[in-house]
Design a protein that fits this description.
Elements (H helix, E strand, L loop, with lengths): L1 E6 L4 H10 L5 E6 L5 H9 L3 E4 L10 H21 L5 E6 L7 H20 L3 E6 L2 E2 L10 H10 L12 E6 H12 L10 E2 L5 E4 H17 L8 H11 L13 E4 L2 E9 L3 E8 L4 E6 L5 E7 L1 E8 L5 E7 L5 E4 L3 E7 L5 E7 L11 E2 L3
Parallel strand pairs: 1-2, 1-3, 3-4, 4-5, 5-8, 6-7
Antiparallel strand pairs: 7-9, 10-11, 11-12, 12-19, 13-18, 13-20, 14-17, 14-19, 15-16, 15-18
Helix pairs in contact: 1-6, 2-3, 3-4, 5-7, 5-8, 7-8
Length: 371
């Protein structure tokens, strides 16, 4: 059993790190937060085999808080380690602001220098990370990163304020940070000559582009059109956006088209993968009786009994596939085949349908003909 101490455990990075550490077998996590005292810190350090020093102040009304916490707490932690007479590996998060001439940057730089001097003096393993714009779930708007602020404001209908849309950001996803930190804990990182380590997976984007992506994610809830999630960054950003949805607004209604046959409702669609929709067909009803030149479909009956019939255009031969919610089976609808689906049971026939392209009423590619 290894005991790990995480300072700043209730913060954005700390929460994500603790959640990951707690899933590792034979690891006990000690959490130091603002609620704990200096005496608590001393006791926790004495029990630790590895320390993640994440605690810090990013924004404050009192400028002196930067030095008190960022430098002061770091030095208190190092002194507590000295008191144990043990060599405990320490990972410390700093910021790229350490290169800047402001109160926050100076406090981070001072904390780094104290840690470097201490590590050299005590021959103690040290991992220093200068992080920049970390984003992801559990981040705080108007504090951690502009991504959190944009996601929060868009999800809640608050207007975005962007002074320079062309300003470029370098972003780092929280999971990449946590995975790298755990590698350090597991001693799977090659040591560096200067004790500085970096998160290699970064993402560059302008403020304007970032805002548009997040707005598009939000619009999906009404338009049903999902922007491309082809890149890892887009998937990370979408995951972050959903974490900011108001808890009383997780659901949204679908537009349905109902008639004497049942109903049809679109679920999700995209220029990149087509669309998915859902149909409810009443007993004895036949849907379809049309064919497509280019559009491909897949049918999956999830409840009820039915029959899908095919006839190649200009042919008299009819093929029949019996389908049932009792046996989940996908049926491909090839181009150039007239097709229909009939509810042959006594209950509603529920079908999930995928089409390779979004339906365009101006060019529907739907040619009606009886099977």
């Amino acid at each position: 059993m290894k005991t790990v101490l995480v300072t700043g455990a209730s913060g954005f990075i700390g929460k994500n790190l603790c959640a990951a550490l707690e899933r590792i077998e034979d690891v006990k996590v000690l959490k130091f937060t603002r609620k704990n005292s200096s005496e608590d810190l001393t006791k926790m350090v004495a029990s630790s085999d590895f320390i993640f020093h994440i605690a810090g102040v990013n924004r404050t009304e009192e400028e002196s808080d930067f030095d008190t916490v960022n430098r002061g707490l770091t030095e208190s932690l190092l002194s507590a380690i000295d008191a144990t007479d043990k060599r405990i590996p320490v990972l410390i998060t700093s910021s790229t602001h350490a290169e800047l001439d402001n109160a926050y940057g100076k406090s981070k730089k001072a904390a780094e220098e104290s840690a470097l001097i201490w590590a050299k003096k005590n021959n103690n393993q040290l991992f220093l990370y200068r992080l920049t714009n970390v984003f992801g779930k559990w981040s705080n708007p108007n504090y951690n990163t502009v991504v959190a602020t944009f996601c929060n404001n868009v999800a809640k209908g608050i207007e975005l304020e962007i002074n320079d849309p062309s300003h470029k950001l370098t972003l780092v996803y929280i999971d990449a940070v946590v995975q790298n930190f755990i590698k350090a804990f597991m001693q799977k990182l090659q040591p560096t000559s200067d004790n500085y380590y970096a998160i290699e997976e970064t993402h560059t984007i302008t403020l304007g582009e970032l805002a548009e992506k997040i707005k598009a994610f939000n619009q999906n809830r009404t338009s049903l059109v999902m922007p491309s999630l082809k890149t890892a960054f887009d998937r990370y950003l979408y995951a972050t956006f959903t974490s900011f949805l108001p808890e009383n607004d997780y659901s949204y209604p679908l537009r349905t088209s109902a008639d004497e046959r049942g109903l049809v409702a679109e679920f999700i669609k995209s220029d990149y993968f087509g669309q998915v929709f859902f149909s409810k067909t009443l007993p004895g009803i036949i849907r379809g009786n049309h064919w497509h030149n280019t559009k491909v479909e897949k049918f999956l009956v999830v409840s009820g009994q039915g029959a899908i019939k095919f006839r190649k255009v200009n042919s008299d031969e009819v093929l029949t596939y019996k389908v049932s919610g009792d046996k989940l089976e996908v049926v491909d609808i090839p181009t150039g085949y007239v097709h229909s689906i009939e509810n042959t049971g006594t209950t509603e026939l529920l079908t999930l349908i995928w089409a390779s392209e979004i339906f365009d009423p101006e060019a529907p590619d739907t040619l009606y003909e009886e099977v």
